[in-house]
Amino acid sequence: MKKHTKEQIEATANAIKDHFIPKNKEEQRFSFNFTIPPSSNYKVDYERDKSGNWGLVGYEADESRE
After folding, report:
1. Could you tell me if 42 and 13 are in contact, meaning their C-beta atoms sit under 8 angstroms apart?
2. Does this model's pTM top 0.85?
3. Which sequence spans correspond to the domains of the chain?
């Protein structure tokens, strides 16, 4: 599996995160999995800041999806 930089992972996750934001306005965290083709799988974690904006707080390679 090709290793991507933090910047590549964050840019990809930020580009699609709006599809995963919880509908419940009380939620403070969410996570989702995605693939950077051809086969690099990642899990990312987002958290809401005090201003109500979602920010990436962590990521990991999701090797269970290979």
Report:
1. yes
2. yes
3. 6-65
The encoded tokens of residue 61 equal: 């390679």
User: Where do we find the tokens 């201003």?
Assistant: 51
Confirm if 26 and 10 have CB atoms less than 8 A apart: no
| Contacting residues for 56 by C-beta, under 8 A, at least 6 apart | 10, 13, 14, 44, 45, 46
List the chain pLDDT tens, one digit each, 66 residues: 568 999 999 999 999 999 999 999 999 999 999 999 998 999 999 999 999 999 999 999 987 655
C-alpha torsion sign, points 48, 24, 29, 44: negative
* Amino acid in position 45: D
- Sort 9 into a burial class: Cβ within 10 Å, 0-12 / 13-18 / 19+: buried
